[in-house]
Design brief:
By secondary structure, this protein is α/β, with parallel strands linked by helices. It is built from eleven helices and ten strands. It folds into two domains: 29 residues, no CATH class; 232 residues, 2-enoyl-CoA Hydratase, Chain A, domain 1 (Alpha-Beta Complex), CATH 3.90.226. The N and C termini lie far apart (123 Å).
């Protein structure tokens, strides 16, 4: 009779614990790698193609994806990309009365402003810098869509006026990069008044014989398009930027017709003579420099 001990089937060995590659590294290497070393937003999705892009590569490409999509960027990045070698002097935005109408909302207007300032690092939806663009001195205004949709309010209006006055005082061109959903509803009529004030400021720049150049970026709509965004001596635009006064759906419902697919895009506006040229973001500083040099030549001749 066989021994019962030898007749028992062998008990299977417990499964080996599977470990990730990081746990198999030698202790010295493991200690050098910290959880916080890898940022959570290291990969960014291309809104056009859906491809996941490595953030440092995207930043090096000025936030233009391989598919050609021009992603929205903040004021600091725009100023850095525009001025030669990223060097410029910031012009502080004037302070204005906050929430002059005590606007009733689900969230107090002052809280919205505070949140926007914290997330963008800017005082309002416009930022101003002075420096050289393509070798030409200029005052540059940048509208930041991430600040309450780049909306035009008293703060932005005062900033625009100050930038125009700075351009006249320094005798240099005024350039603006627009990006806005329109007037700021929390300031009511006071925001609409900025359309007239900015128009007068543009007239002062032109009366001084100085160029005013507009670069339209995605999106530029509403009261901004109906005022200073369409008063430039030259109008450039980034590729496929949405540019229009009213929304596409509103227009279609009004005229009861289906609009062309490219309607209100920068390429469509060039074809119909509303803007002068579509320029890719990396090429804008050089193109602006050539334009400013050409437009300032007439002023130099008059001064001679």
């Amino acid at each position: 009779m066989a021994d019962s001990k030898t007749d028992k089937p062998a008990r299977p060995a417990p499964p080996r614990e599977r470990k990730g590659w990081l746990t198999r590294l030698r202790p010295g290497v493991r200690s050098d790698i910290k959880k916080g070393d890898t940022p959570e937003n290291l990969w960014v999705k291309d809104p056009e193609s859906g491809e996941m892009l490595y953030r440092p590569d995207l930043e090096a490409a000025q936030w233009v994806t391989p598919s050609g999509h021009h992603m929205r960027i903040g004021a600091a990045a725009r100023l850095s990309f525009t001025f030669d070698d990223g060097e410029f002097e910031r012009i502080a935005s004037p302070k204005v009365v906050e929430d002059p109408l005590n606007f009733p909302d689900e969230r107090p207007y002052k809280e919205r402003l505070a949140a926007a300032r914290k997330s963008t690092g800017e005082q309002d939806s416009m930022a101003v810098g002075v420096g050289k663009v393509g070798g030409q001195p200029a005052v540059v205004i940048v509208q930041d869509f991430s600040f309450m949709g780049g909306s035009l309010g008293m703060g932005a209006g005062e900033t625009f006026v100050k930038a125009a006055q700075e351009a006249v005082a320094r005798e240099v061109p005024l350039v603006i990069f627009t990006a806005s959903g329109g007037a700021r509803m929390q300031e009511g009529t006071l925001s609409l008044m900025q359309m007239a004030r900015t128009t007068l400021a543009v007239n002062e720049v032109k009366a001084a014989g100085l160029p005013y150049v507009v670069v339209l970026t995605d999106p530029t709509t509403g009261g901004v398009l109906a005022s200073y965004a369409m008063l430039g001596d030259i109008h450039l635009a980034e590729p496929k930027a949405t540019i229009g006064f009213s929304g596409r759906r509103v227009i279609e419902q009004t005229i009861r017709e289906i609009l062309p697919p490219a309607f209100q895009k920068s390429e469509f506006l060039v074809e119909h003579g509303m803007i002068d040229r579509v320029v890719a973001r990396p090429d804008i500083p050089a193109v602006l420099g050539n334009i400013l040099e050409t437009l300032m030549m007439g002023r130099a001749r008059r001064a001679a």
